């Protein structure tokens, strides 16, 4: 390699001697160029000397050692024999149309099918024996059309359609100075002078693909020569990014890019086999050199593939997952699916940015609790349904201990919440209920009131999880051994990756002993009569009857022993109890169901109102500024609704207070509904009028 001592053009590669041959531009001398840029000059008899305005600029070696020479827009072309094995014609003009004998005057050959050609270079294809090229953009008649020359028959063929694609017609408006070829079938490569665009041209479809652009821009004086037995080779590279946000493929960690060791980029050809393998370094970079022209894709894997064998499956180290792939600059796109396999690309076209995104997925925490039977109640939190044969515990219960997050679903994620359990209630985390034990029911308030969590159609996602909105129900007789109360859940991180399922299990100290199928109270002449029934009992001792004036502070007023004569009863058993001195205004009752080991659970709460008591709920009516709710007993929930049912004001009565005053001054005049929810789940309503 070196600087040429003279200006040379019309070059071609001679496979017979491994030299590049061409023309000293302003002479009629043929030159042979060595690997050290040294020139050997030969004067060719009868080769016309060029002029400054019409020098020889088109050349190629074809056939068995013949140099084709042409000057743009000339009417004749010339052929020089450069094969020393033919001593009689070596370094002489020959006539290819007459078996390459010595050329005679008038020297050179004219074209058939065209008087002249507005071209700057050609390339020889041994597969069809033709010289191929593209007519210069400056041509007034055939710009951008592909042409062929048969140097033996003199026939010129110009395609009716132009070469298009890759911006070739927009980016070049003068000439195509260099054309060359490799072993890629039906393909040649062309350099566009003005902007320095390098294009791959499909000779079957006339489609052009931009391969690259010269970093120094265009060049008016250039030429190209091809060794048709070689392949155009180039480099391919890319980066594996630590990309937890799963958006456009990039390093979204906010820290220097770092990826796990043991990763390999496997370059795969169109036949599905490995072409080359490159390790991915700790900063995520990988690269391949000397790759022939063609179409490829990359598989990211822990397997170091073997060239010539089938592509390995994509894989990542344990605790990592794919978030995307994109052929192009960092942070400009993401191509689905995120599977560790790049899109197919053409060598040179975006082949230096074959990028991948990976991240570490979340981990859901395993939860196992042991609670006293009394932690479960037949009376669920306000607004949640009572289920026959089930008792409930809120996930926020103080009895669910042993973890910093209590009974909350929780987990961790290396990118979103790295410390164990720090993704939990109130952190905006999405959890998914995957499966539910047969002895368990779950209810969650998604915002419109509690609903049953049903996983028969697949996992149920809970965005922005709030532990206070989850209530867990366990069937009577469950809670121990293989019949634990629980479910499995997973966690989804900000990138959309979901963890493996984790078990959430609650065991009680002993099986919950009684299945209560009914519990009712009626008022009879100042006496409260309680009736209840069970469908099954196991080691049941009996029922303590408790009474309260506010559903908060409870007093035992009696005990009814179990009617079961066996350790386990599966028959209906009916019970009753009479309270001859109920409280004055309103009395609340519940059953404390006690087993032989002293363990217990509670029933739902029931309420009875004195026949002689008069309760005025809201006054004055109409009201102007304040509205008083009277006749309250416990922690009732109070709401003011408009006629469409929209809640405008809500509050809760303090335990033991019998009045609560609401400020309704901001409300416009009109009719409203006062809704009072009792601690036992019952409710009363009253219409009031706001009028100033």
Automatic annotation (TrEMBL):
Any idea where the Secretion system C-terminal sorting domain is? 619-689
Domain of life, source organism = Bacteria
Q: Which Gene3D superfamilies match?
A: Immunoglobulins
Q: Pfam families, per this entry?
A: DUF6923, Por_Secre_tail
Q: Which InterPro entries match?
A: DUF6923 (IPR054215), Ig-like_fold (IPR013783), Secre_tail (IPR026444)
Looking at the record, the residues that make up the DUF6923 domain are 8-229
The name on file for this protein is: Putative secreted protein (Por secretion system target)
Query: What does the record give as the organism's lineage?
Result: Bacteria, Pseudomonadati, Bacteroidota, Cytophagia, Cytophagales
């Amino acid at each position: 390699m070196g600087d040429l001592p003279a200006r040379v053009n019309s070059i071609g590669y001679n496979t017979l001697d491994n030299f590049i041959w061409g023309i000293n531009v302003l002479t009629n001398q043929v030159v042979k160029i060595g690997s050290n840029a040294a020139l050997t000059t030969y004067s060719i008899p009868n080769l016309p000397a060029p002029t400054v305005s019409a020098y020889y600029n088109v050349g190629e070696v074809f056939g068995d050692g013949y140099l084709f020479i042409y000057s743009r827009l000339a009417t004749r072309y010339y052929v020089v024999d450069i094969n020393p094995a033919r001593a009689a014609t070596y370094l002489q003009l020959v006539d290819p149309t007459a078996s390459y004998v010595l050329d005679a005057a008038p020297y050179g050959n004219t074209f058939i099918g065209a008087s002249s050609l507005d071209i700057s270079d050609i390339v020889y294809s041994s597969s069809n024996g033709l010289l191929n090229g593209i007519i210069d953009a400056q041509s007034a008649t055939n710009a951008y059309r592909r042409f062929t020359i048969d140097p033996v028959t003199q026939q010129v063929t110009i395609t009716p359609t132009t070469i298009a694609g890759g911006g070739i017609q927009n980016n070049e408006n003068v000439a195509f100075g260099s054309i060359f070829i490799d072993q890629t079938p039906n393909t040649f490569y062309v350099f566009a002078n003005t902007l320095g665009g390098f294009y791959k041209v499909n000779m079957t479809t006339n489609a052009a693909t931009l391969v690259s652009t010269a970093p120094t821009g265009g060049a008016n004086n250039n030429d190209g020569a091809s060794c048709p037995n070689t392949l155009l080779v180039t480099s391919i590279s890319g980066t594996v990014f630590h990309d937890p946000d799963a958006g456009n493929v990039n390093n979204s960690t906010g820290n220097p890019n770092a990826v796990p060791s043991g990763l390999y980029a496997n370059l795969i050809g169109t036949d599905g086999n490995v072409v080359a393998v490159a390790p991915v370094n700790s900063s995520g970079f990988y690269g391949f050199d000397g790759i022939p022209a063609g179409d490829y894709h990359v598989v990211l894997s822990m397997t170091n593939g073997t060239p010539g064998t089938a592509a390995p499956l994509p894989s990542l180290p344990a605790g990592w997952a794919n978030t995307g792939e994109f052929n192009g600059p960092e942070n400009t796109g993401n191509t689905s699916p995120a599977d560790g396999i790049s899109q197919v690309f053409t060598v040179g076209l975006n082949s230096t940015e074959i990028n991948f995104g990976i991240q570490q997925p979340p981990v859901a925490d395993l939860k196992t609790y042991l609670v006293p039977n009394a932690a479960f109640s037949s009376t669920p939190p306000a607004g949640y349904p009572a289920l026959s044969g089930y008792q409930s515990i809120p996930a926020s219960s103080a009895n669910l201990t042993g973890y910093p997050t209590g009974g909350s679903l929780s987990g961790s994620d290396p990118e979103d919440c790295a410390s164990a359990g720090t993704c939990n209630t109130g952190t905006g985390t999405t959890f998914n209920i995957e499966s539910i034990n047969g002895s368990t029911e779950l209810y969650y308030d998604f915002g419109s009131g509690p609903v049953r969590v049903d996983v028969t159609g697949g996992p149920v996602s809970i965005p922005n999880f709030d532990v206070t909105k989850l209530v867990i129900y366990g069937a009577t007789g469950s809670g121990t051994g293989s019949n634990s109360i629980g479910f499995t859940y997973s966690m989804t991180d900000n990138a959309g990756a979901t963890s493996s399922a984790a078990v959430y299990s609650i065991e009680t100290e002993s099986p919950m002993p009684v299945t209560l199928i009914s519990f009712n109270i009626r008022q009879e002449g100042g006496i409260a009569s309680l009736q209840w029934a069970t469908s099954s009992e196991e080691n049941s001792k009996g029922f303590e009857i408790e009474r309260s004036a506010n559903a908060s502070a409870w007093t035992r007023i009696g005990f009814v022993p179990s009617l079961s004569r066996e350790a386990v009863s599966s028959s209906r058993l009916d019970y009753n109890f009479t309270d001859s001195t109920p409280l004055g205004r309103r009395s609340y009752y519940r059953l404390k169901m006690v087993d032989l080991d002293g363990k217990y659970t509670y029933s739902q709460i029931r309420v009875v109102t004195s026949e002689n008591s008069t309760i005025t709920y809201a006054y004055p009516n109409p009201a102007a500024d304040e509205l008083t709710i009277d006749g309250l007993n416990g922690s009732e929930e109070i709401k003011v609704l408009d006629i469409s049912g929209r809640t405008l004001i809500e509050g809760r009565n303090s335990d033991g207070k019998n009045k609560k005053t609401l400020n309704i001054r901001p409300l416009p005049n009109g009719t409203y509904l006062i809704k009072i929810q009792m601690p036992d789940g019952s409710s009363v309503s009253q219409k009031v009028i706001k009028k100033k």
